[in-house]
Structure prediction request, 255 residues.
Amino acid sequence: MHPPVLRVRELTKHFGNVTSVDGVSFDIFRGEVLGLLGANGAGKTTAINMVLGIVTPTGGRIEVFGKELMANRIEVLRQMNFCSTYTQLPGNLRIWQNLKVFGQIYRVPNLNSRIDEVLEMLEISHLKKRVSGELSAGEGTRLNLCKALLNRPRLLLLDEPTASLDPDIADKVRRVVKRIRDEEGTTILYTSHNMRDVEEVCDRVVFMHRGKVLFTGTSEETLHHFKEESLEDVFIRVARGGDIESKGEIEEASK
Prediction:
């Protein structure tokens, strides 16, 4: 088996007396979509920010492409990208200008052609000359996805990529995610509160609760472990605390 594209071991982050991430471990392999799940406050965003090198861990280790992240940050991040529904690109630039700027940052070859390609992929070619600040929430999300795909990232982090989309566009985004996984072997860390998204695109899931990993496995393994009928039922049970910890169900993700 090839080494993981992303390896996280005993990752911990303290903010003063608050522990946001507590000994989290998981791997993602080439061409895999891993769902990082949990209620608000579970530690998902902090974990993602540490993988992006934005937040410095209190403890633990992150390896990307077999290299320690912080020691090889620039080299590694050029081969990654990120998209979140909750971030916006500069609103005073036109769509093509925003993509041009980020494409130059990532040193994308044949940039103009690549811009046209990602715009077509996300079906917003007709908005190419539109000022970014005039876009609807759904159009802005698709622009963010275009930016995230520009450099053909080996590792892509998607934070709730369908949260502001109507069902039709959300379905198209899921198809794009599966397409780049299948055709380009892109490895994806995917967070979502939409369990339909997760069931359709994720190969495995990691459930987090209060900064810890509760369980890692396929959807089927997760349902069997928690003895629930759907991932939504598992999510609700985890979010509400339930009797998870009293049953000793916290597992080591590295197993």
Remarks:
- The first helix runs from residue 44 to 51.
- The mean pLDDT is 91.
- The chain is about 35% helix and 25% strand.
- The beta strands are 6-15, 18-28, 33-37, 59-64, 67-68, 80-84, 155-159, 187-191, 204-209, 212-217.
